[in-house]
Write a structure and sequence with these properties.
The complex is a heterodimer.
Chain A (H helix, E strand, L loop, with lengths): L1 H32 L10 E7 L7 E7 L13 E7 L7 E7 L4 E5 L4 E2 L2 E2 L10 E8 L12 E3 L11 H22 L10 H16 L3 E6 L6 H20 L3 E2 L5 H17 L18 H15 L3 E7 L3 H12 L2 E6 L5 H7 L2 E4 L1 H11 L2 H29 L4 H6 L5
Parallel strand pairs in A: 10-11, 10-12, 12-13, 13-14
Antiparallel strand pairs in A: 1-2, 2-5, 3-4, 3-8, 6-7, 8-9
Helix pairs in contact in A: 2-10, 3-4, 4-5, 4-9, 6-7, 9-10
Chain B lengths: L3 H17 L10 H33 L5 H19 L18 H32 L5 H16 L2 H6 L12 H10 L1 H25 L15
Helix pairs in contact in B: 2-3, 5-7, 7-8
Classes of the chains: A alpha/beta, B mainly alpha.
């Protein structure tokens, strides 16, 4: 009976204990819900400087890390960069940089992008204001820093290209000096090139065989320097073919190139006194596509049985396809390109190859005129100078002196 | 006068663009890019010239029934069909406003099912031509050709599994002579040095050539013989 009386007492006590514990638990959890969010400290020492060596549409924003970087709960994950055109105006977020990067390049030279106003655009000479904040991994942002201003300005000289400028100035002076020396009648010796000497023989061979000459200007564009070098050689070859009265076929892969090639050959025929022999159909536009162009030119080689093939210009993968087909037809072949990757193919498949700079020199060699030989002489001296510079660099770097290397290093970014 | 105008334009534009490389300030900083755009605009008009020339040359060949004239019919047909398919966007799911290369359009189908396989066929011929050219070039006719032959043979072996198997037994102290290592050395030291030497020569040549054109002493592309008038 006594036991039965005790049961309600035990239940009551258990309930009381449960209620007290539940209340205590609630009291323990409460601080987590109502805890005050602690903002990290903003970055320090914000500076805005003009981006050097640019066209005046960029600023560099630099800062020191927030004191909270790498510290517990307020650890900083990155920095937000805000820009406004007034110190107290509306600030727009321009970017975010992660911890470890304390510089941001802001700006754009494009006023309109995809038909809309580009908000990153920066006007030359305008003042722009910046505020920065720190951000935690929980996306808690610090207070803004005080506004700091900067003015983007355009530079009149790219200081990072100073060594280029000096080298170019010296080289141009050397070229002009030798042109002047050539004009004054000074004899300039230049080493003979096998490929150049073979050009006259190759034209003579075609004349004897009574077959046409094929001249391929490559698959570059009309404005590539190798193609321009090709025009100059074409002009001289065309003049000789006009004198010997044999046709020169120039299938081209670009309409602009076609116009220039037609003009070059027409003028050469006029110079040779045989404008009546000029036929525009011998300089056709074939196609702008690489491999269809190869198919067309190879077809011409096989059908017309060309006696001599010239490949002078910018070539890509089609170099070997053309040269090998020419080799199988038995034509004498002279090639020249400034593409180092295609040179081995030309060397393997053609009779003579003008390697790189020799392509540019060919026109001067063919004319034999002193004025044109001047720059060639300057090239040789420049190469000798470069060899000396490189040998000194090799020795100084080997023994651990970097002053020579630093003297020629550039910053063109 | 006919020559003086292009020479004057070349002189002014050439020097301006050289100077512009070192001046980021507007308008110089953008000049190079702007002139490329002008060239592209002129090139678009030149394509009309190119198309006209193609039709004229091949039309003439068909009309006069010259050698292999039926191939010219194929060329003209190909030109006209692709031109119409592209201009009128035939079969394009989005109609005339659709993208030219939209899948399902006749233009894209012509490219995918006719042009691309034909182009791949031409490109694949390269493998055979490399073999025949190598055969001729690698015959040890003289000292240079012998060096070429030996270097090519080492690289060929070094780039295939057999090169590794042949010399795997070499001790660590002789690892330089392990064929893949030797092939790597040839490619990165003598080959690269040679390529850089060629590139330096090309760079100097480009500047000298450009100066000859800018100064007007090289004018054979205008039909002259290079003398100052």
């Amino acid at each position: 009976m006594d036991r039965l009386k005790l049961i309600p007492l035990i239940v009551l006590s258990a309930l009381l204990v449960f209620i007290i514990n539940a209340d205590a638990g609630a009291q323990e959890e409460a601080p987590a819900d109502t805890a005050e969010i602690v903002k990290p400290a903003p970055p320090q020492n914000v500076r805005v400087v003009d981006n050097p060596n640019d066209n005046g549409h960029y600023l560099l924003i630099r800062w020191d890390p927030s004191p909270d970087e790498g510290k517990g709960d307020n650890d900083v994950m990155g920095y937000n960069i805000y820009r406004s055109d007034k110190p107290d105006g509306e600030y727009r977020q321009m970017g975010t940089m992660p911890v470890g990067f304390y510089e941001y390049e802001d700006g754009s030279e494009e006023e309109v992008l995809a038909g809309e106003k580009n908000l990153e655009y920066m006007e030359i000479g305008e003042t722009y204001y910046y505020k920065l904040t720190s951000v935690t991994p929980q996306d808690v942002e610090s207070e803004f820093t005080e506004p700091v201003s900067g003015v983007p300005t355009a530079d009149w000289f790219h200081a990072g290209k100073l060594s280029y400028f000096i080298a170019l100035f010296l080289y141009i002076s050397l070229v002009l000096y030798f042109i002047k020396a050539a004009k004054s009648g000074q004899k300039l010796y230049i080493r003979p090139l096998g490929g150049i000497e073979a050009i006259d023989n190759a034209i003579g061979r075609a004349t004897e065989m009574g077959r046409p000459i094929l001249f391929v200007l490559g698959t570059g564009t009309a404005s590539d320097i190798a193609t321009i070098a090709g025009y100059t050689i074409l002009g001289r070859v065309a003049r000789k073919t006009a004198e010997y009265q044999i046709p020169v076929l120039v299938p081209v892969n670009e309409p602009v190139m076609m116009s220039v090639a037609q003009e070059t050959v027409r003028n050469a025929y006029i110079e040779a006194g045989r404008p009546d022999l000029y036929d525009e159909k011998n300089i056709p536009y074939v196609t702008a596509m690489q491999f269809p162009y190869v198919a067309a030119v190879n077809g011409i080689m096989i059908r017309e049985k060309t006696a001599t093939n010239f490949y002078m210009g910018l070539f890509h993968a089609e170099a070997l396809l053309l040269a090998e087909t020419g080799a199988t037809t038995g034509a004498i072949q002279i090639s020249g390109t400034d593409q180092p990757s295609q040179l081995p193919f030309f060397i393997a498949a053609t009779d003579f190859t003008l390697i790189g700079e020799e392509l540019y020199a060919a026109s001067a060699y063919l004319s034999g005129q002193p004025l044109l030989l001047g720059p060639l002489k300057a090239q040789d001296y420049a190469k000798a100078l470069l060899i000396v510079i490189m040998v000194i660099g090799l020795i100084t770097m080997t023994i651990g002196w970097s002053f020579w290397y630093d003297l020629f290093s550039t910053n063109i970014t | 006068m006919r020559r003086q105008v292009p020479l004057a334009i070349t002189f002014i534009v050439g020097w301006t663009l050289i100077i512009a490389v070192f001046i980021p300030h507007p308008p110089f900083g953008q000049l190079g890019e702007n002139f490329t755009t002008y060239f592209d605009i002129i090139a678009v008009f030149a394509f009309i010239l190119g198309g006209g020339n193609l039709i004229r040359v091949h039309g003439n060949k068909v009309y006069k029934k010259r050698q292999d004239w039926p191939y010219s019919i194929v060329t003209i047909l190909g030109f006209v069909v692709v031109l119409i398919a592209g201009l009128f966007k035939i079969g394009n799911p989005d109609g005339l406003s659709g993208d030219l290369t939209q899948p399902g359009s006749l233009f894209q189908d012509l490219y995918t099912y006719i042009f691309a396989p034909l182009q791949a066929t031409m490109f694949s011929l390269l493998a055979f031509f490399v073999a025949s050219a190598s055969y001729r070039a690698f015959r040890a006719k003289n000292k240079e050709a012998t060096v070429l032959l030996v270097a090519a043979f080492i690289i060929l072996l070094g780039r295939t599994p057999i090169g590794g198997y042949l010399t795997f037994w070499l001790p660590e102290s002789l690892s330089f002579f392990h064929i893949p290592n030797l092939a790597y050395w040839i490619m990165t030291i003598p080959n690269l040095a040679g390529q850089r030497a060629i590139l330096i020569g090309i760079s100097l040549g480009v500047i000298a050539m450009s100066l000859r054109l800018i100064l007007g002493i090289e004018r054979s592309y205008l039909g002259g013989e290079g003398e100052r008038s």
